[in-house]
Amino acid sequence: MSSSVPPHCPSCGASLTVVKLECPVCQTEVTGQYPLCPVCRLNADTRRLFDLYMTARGNVRDVQRALGVSYPTARQRIEGMFLELGHGPTPPHPTAVLRRLRAGEIDVDTAERLLRGESVEEPITEE
Predict the structure, then answer these.
(1) Domain residues for 109?
(2) What is the pLDDT of residue 14?
């Protein structure tokens, strides 16, 4: 038995759908069309990163050490994983947006877009 469900069709690359579940004890079968969970749709490398992230309980430093990469590289890979899972980038902290607004670095419209989570040309780092 395979340890993970293949996320894509080996012939055409389309997303697969689960159509049958079976109990190994009583052999009850459930049929239907069920989408794969977001984690099951990850490619093998990203799935390994997800498993490592979970084992590290979200500690990026532990992930960094296990991967043998720099902290920014580990952080970038984790952000990519979240994007694959359907979660967008983390919005900037409201205090950072207000600080930039007060300093005249951004205008009110840009500050509003940032606070709504919309993307703008220049990212603001979290503080």
Answers:
(1) 92-120
(2) 87
- Report how far residue 98's alpha carbon sits from residue 108's, in angstroms, rounded to the nearest whole number: 9
Tokens at 77, concatenated: 């890979």
Helix (H/G/I), strand (E/B), else coil: 74: helix
Whether residue 69 lies inside any domain: the answer is yes
Whole-angstrom Cα distance, residue 4 to residue 9?
Answer: 14
Structure tokens at 11: 């012939």
CB 53 within 8 A of CB 81: yes
In a domain, 58, yes or no: yes
Domain co-membership, 80 together with 99: no
Express each pLDDT in 93-103 by its tens digit: 889 999 999 99
Report the distance separating Cα 11 and Cα 32, nearest Å: 22
- Count of other CB atoms within 10 angstroms of residue 91: 16
Task: Identify the helix (H) or strand (E) that includes residue 62.
Answer: helix 60-67
Mean pLDDT of 60-79: 93
Domain count, the chain: 2
